[in-house]
L-ectoine synthase (Actinocorallia libanotica), 130 residues
Amino acid sequence: MIVKSLQDIIGTDRDVQAPTWCSRRLVLAKEKVGFSLHDTILYAGTSTAMWYANHIEAVYCIGGTGELVNEETGERHDIAPGTMYLLDGHERHTLHAHTELRMICVFNPPCTGREVHDEHGVYPLVEEDA
């Protein structure tokens, strides 16, 4: 059994910072459970273009408001607490944070904690060291 609090993560190497977001990685590939779990904050007034070409991501909003744009279809979706979206087709998307957004994210395959978005918004597929 693994038990952690968010306070255990903040300020460690699992607290990953970027210009438009921070991601607190609660469960990573090294835990060997088949997914990773992230508590992510997107900063108010920012837009983040992403494309998870190598991962499936499920996202559940627990705070704030924003808009999700499917860059492949142009579809727009309001994001607010209680909204979930699943990127089951590796869609290129942009998340606009109208206010600070707090999102719970699940990735498969699991992230190692070393991933950062490349110039296309992609997380590379990083394997966990044996």
